[in-house]
Request: fold
Amino acid sequence: MSRPEVPTVIFIGQPNGGKSTLFNSIAGPKAETSNFPGTSVKHTHSRVSIGGRLLDIIDLPGTYSLCSTDPAEQVVLTHLFAERPDLIVNIVDASTLSRGLELTLELIELGYPMVVALNMIDVAERKGIELDAAKTEALLGVPVVPTVAAHGRGVRELLDRVFDVVDKGQALKPLRFSGDVEDMVAEVERSIPPEFPRVSNTRFTAIKLIETAGHACGDFLGQVEPELGAAVDRARKTIEARRGTPAYEVVSAERHHQAMKLAEESSRFLHGRRMTWDMRVDAVLMHPFLGYVILAAVFAAFFFIIFEAGSPLEALLLGPLDKLKAALAARLGQGLLFHLAEGLIQGVGGGVAIVLPYFLPLLFLMSALEDIGYLARAGFLLDAFMHRIGLHGKSVSPFILGFGCNVPAIVATRTLESHRDRVLTSILIPFIPCSARTTIILALVAFYLGPLWAMGFYVMNLVIVALLGWIISRFLKEPSPGLILEIPSLKAPRLGSILRKTWLQIYSFVKFAWPLLIGGSLVLSLLSYFRADGWINGVLAPLVVKGLGLPHELGVTLVFGFLRKELSLIMMLQALGVDYQSLMTVISREQIVVFTVFISFFIPCLSTCAILWKEIGKKWAFVSTGLSIAVALVLSWLVRLVL
Amino acid sequence: MNLTNAPHGRPLRIVDLAGGENVRRRLMALGFHTGDVVELDGRAILRGPLLVRNCTSDTTVALGRGVAQKVHVEPVHEPS
Reply:
């Protein structure tokens, strides 16, 4: 076997199995995240040197099986099938061994050289399961290394085995299915024409054809020609007739039983099932009453910490930027150069000083909640409420992210399996007050009308989200497939992995949103330099003056609001020609509320529109924009009517 | 009997997974097959989801009512 220059090693495993922890402990801080070509599905990769030898390691998103109907997982599979890595490291959660082995068996069928990391053996031991790695290795016919990735245990041995397999090669021997299924596999194998693309080997391709009719392998197999299609159909029908269940279920059940048998033979129960500490904690966390008390406390603390940490940070960062702007104004006068510099500073300032101070603690706390496994539990607790608005518990975490910034929140909807849920969640997220809008609410409503008004505003906002969800879900004919959410076992939080997750998200946010923020600010500066604001005010006057009852100078702030929500606050003061303290002299309380309502809702900001377009398509981006404008108009009108 | 009207904390055997192909595939990917022994560990208020623990693989999954209705079970008589 020829030795590749730098071997490529892919890390694959089921979600919550500690795959990324293991990957990170090997990859170190140099790891980079990038998208699969043409998609927004991410993978992390790194070139590492281990004992003087180079390895390209790639961390794929977690996947439960190799026949997925989930579009994101299919991208992963297509990559896996097309790229042919030199080796697979399969991470199996030892505490849920029998389920993890189902994927392992599928990977052995796939036939790439592989090594199994039997991870979290400490958790298994706590549960009273003693695992015999050598026995598992003998049964599977691939190297099996026990690891505890969180503590770095077993990583060295794992890498030794990896190099061993890379150097010497490996002959895999997949387990056989029952005779009748195996006959059908052989028949399909014979029907596959020589020029048909093989996923790794003919047997695996045949199995996948039977399991999925070629659909759920990503688009790797392409079009199946009629003759082969007929043969696959025959095989599926034969299996179905003999077993009385669909072929895909028969094959899956075969693996399931092989895995259960393997798990049973390689583990020993030290004691019967007994209450461990995490079961006791879980009973409280998911208690029908206490669970909600804790949930409310967690979220109250969550937002309290974010604002406590955020506002001093914001002041700290905004101060120097304001000084810089003043200094530039003195130096450059009022020319084009100053306007460009001002736009640049405002763009950078908005990104650094307004969004980051709130977003950073939010992401950190979110990662912490996710890391210990609380987010899944929150999803469980809130599912019933989400059902009322046509969604389910899995949409909870994108919603929470939306309070920081809508952009990564919309990206996070990728974890939802059904397209319908993704679209609905993505359309609702722009109505959640992000940190930029919260800034406006705090600065205008809380400052001038009192904190109770601001809280009322927040509550109203959430009611509107719920109402919209309820209404839109009436129009989506397809029902939500319902919640199927794994509740991973509770884990102690690990600072390293939390920081890492936070960093990755901040990084992708900065990469996507900052160019838009800075570009938007530059455009705004140019507008005001060329005195286009007067013209814009004129065009918008019917809406602003007649429709909303606001001073006509505020027209231009709406444009700012589209580019950058929080800028409309600064621009409002600038447009009215007053400073913050004396705002009430030129504008009434009622007008402040109308303005805040309209600015908050009237359109998702440019970055949000862009990400909506990218993630769920042009059509829905326009629907979302139209909806926002309609809601903003109706609400402002209602506010004027009530106040 | 399906999971929504099955007794709590007792071993139950899955006799049938009803429902569409997507739901069945998803359940199977998460390690739930006909013949498996599961246990109801809890339920959320307001007709919320059920907590279902698979006794073989020791994994816990939250299932919405709609999904839980499609999992038909029967009680397992514990060997004395």
In short: DSSP finds 26 helices and ten strands in chain A.
